[in-house]
Amino acid sequence: MTDVIVVGGGPAGLACAVELRQRRVSDVVVLDREERAGGIPRHCAHLGFGVRDLRRALSGPTYAQRYVQLAERAGVDIRAATMVTGWSPDGSLEVTTPESRESLQASAIVLATGCRERPRPARLVPGSRPEGVLMTGLLQQLVELGSPGIGTRALIVGAEHVSFSALLTLVHAGVKVAGMATELPRHQSLPGAAVGAALRYRVPLWTRTALTEIRGLPRVEEVELRDLGTGRTRAIACDTVVFTADWIPDHELSVTAGLELDPGTRGPQVDTALRTTHAGLFAAGNLLQGAEPADVAALSGRHAAAAVAGWLNRGYRSPDRVPIVCRPPLLWISPNAVSDVAPPPRGRFVVRSSTFVSRPALEIRQDDRVLWRGRLRKLVPGRSAQVPSSWLPRVDLEGGEIEVSVPGAG
Amino acid sequence: MGAGVVGAAVARELSRFDLSCTLLDAGPDIGAGTSKANTALLHTGFDATPGTLEARLVRRGHELLSAYAAQVGIPLARIGALLVAWTPEQRAAFPGIVERAHANGDAATREVGVEELYRREPHLGPGAHGALDIPDEGIVCPFTTPLAYATEAVLNGCELRRGVRVTGVERRSDGGFELQTTRGSIGTRFFVNAAGLYSDELDRLAGHDGFTITPRRGELIVYDKLARPLLNHIVLAVPTGTTKGVLVAPTVFGNLLVGPTAQDIQRKDDTSSTAEGLAYLRAEGKRILPQLGQHEVTAVYVGLRAATEHTDYQLTIHAAEGYACIGGIRSTGLSASLAIAEHVRTELGAAGLELHPKERTATVRMPNIGELSRRPYEQTGRIVCFCERVTLGEIEAALSSTIPPVDLDGLRRRTRVLMGRCQGFYCGARVAALLREGTA
Model pTM? Predict the structure, then answer.
């Protein structure tokens, strides 16, 4: 039996494995279903990776490569082209590789399966079903492989960080961007970067605008946009539509393991040490919260390693846990349960909101007690706001669920 | 003419005899029209109008396809259907439906009480007044079925030509036809019109005017495989005059599907989904199976049924001319396909087509793309499409098969690549590259 199997060789999984080796766990295996480990950053050609975890600014592929090297040097057994397809009744992992089909057992398992962008059918966008409808992740790989026929004129759906990343990828691939459309009243990226990119490439940003139909066969010919204020619709000619953000966790193994899921994140419910509701089963990275930057995911993986090592050394009785729930406009908080005073990754919780709120007054309550009250700088949809964890010692582990709200903003 | 499930079945049937046969399709692939976008059910014909050709052929087709599927490896399972009454009025229709089922030779259909219904479908929404149990209804792979027929036909010597549209039909003085097509003319003694949505236009080109097709749009929603445990049977609605209603059914791939809508439209190529249709299906799905609301939608697709002004199939054999027209096969074509082919073969034989069985015919074994039995990834494999667990070996096999795909959709239907929940987020670029290499 292996000590630890990490499922997923992206930043979170690899960082977790490296940290486990540094904590003298002898036998650490990372399973990655892709041909090469490294995760999503492998396809992100732009700079900015590694600031928080490696203290340098790297391109995505370099960053991914660096983590693979770190893991290999640390003695981690990375197995690529190795896919976990499910669970055996005895709790071991069913694994397919090019050479074998096997059941793998481990004393601890870390799920680091990441997240993906919600594709067009899941968003129920009506119309024809032509070629040329992509997500950022697919777009980046098409460009990376030098695929022909990516398009000539694109509409980007969404206006988050990743949407502007899609914009740059399109521009570099020689695709003109007809515009960006978001249903929200403004974009959600950093002011400088977003406005700069939009100005530089003369890309209109259509706010409060919904994509209501895709037309054309066999290729996209135009889209219908609706102004949510006036209700007016108009057609925009384009041959490519890129759906960005709207992340959902790749939680299949979490669901089939029977883990409790958080209704907000749709990832497994985890306590501050990143323990799931099954003893010996941990989760880290963007499976927990779609999507944080790669370095934040890596730090989450590093954080999970502490609890994994503790479990291997001492085990733990599965303690009672108190779930944390969010009230609108808050969508979710992560981690989303408390079972002891262990601090969360990076010492803080992160929350997401469905609306923009400036200087929100956040309140954390349990039963009739206020655990924490304080002002955050702002809430921006699709971006995490940080919440201190200083209130953890005040949680009554036998009490009711913890409730996070923005009084007056619901 | 027409390599949908019906045309391919006819080609397969005729290819077993010593005659020269050509299968034409205007589209790029086998089963790329209506055949690819339906509810993928194996009907018993319990609710057909007794005495009609449709009733007879669906019943016979159910029997033939069940046997054929086991023989060639088409995913098929008789999981049974429960036809649920949601109002007392609907329940009052049960005796009539049972009587009709029995008249159609389906003796197994019977009424079950509310308690039994909820015991067998514990996740069903509240408010059911009872159900009919139709144990022989089933689910079948709509992609493998026509492909198996066409593959067998080709291996038996039938010539397959894709991307060929018939533009004119001339009669030769010595009998037979000269078909004008977009790729030159083709002479033939006998001519079978299985052009689906376009069978009325082809019928007119052939000098007849038997019927008019009004495409009936059916939108369908496919839910994530994680929703599959919510349902054990096909859950049918009490049919109305125009449609069988919205059903919820498992698929052989392990998804749940909800649909279809039924809307008569003008254009025969308008396979667009609509905001209203999708909202309606979402609501119906949630009403029938409330927990569906928590699940992601994996795919949306739209099929156009070849509805006519008549209620029965428009299947006419013009014996003297040597022309068979198979029109108006609305929504039971998949179930009835082998019986339609058998019927057409018999009738053409009576019309003078000489039928000498070939001494040797091909046996076909299709790759299994369903979840009803073991998939290749459960042995070993380099998995390319993670959501549907499609291996590189399966993709390579499809690309070098008897009837290889010419486009991404064709590869999807043969292997299920890109049909899963991520819709290509992870493997779309690589699969496209494999297709380019494989078809270069």
Answer: 0.96
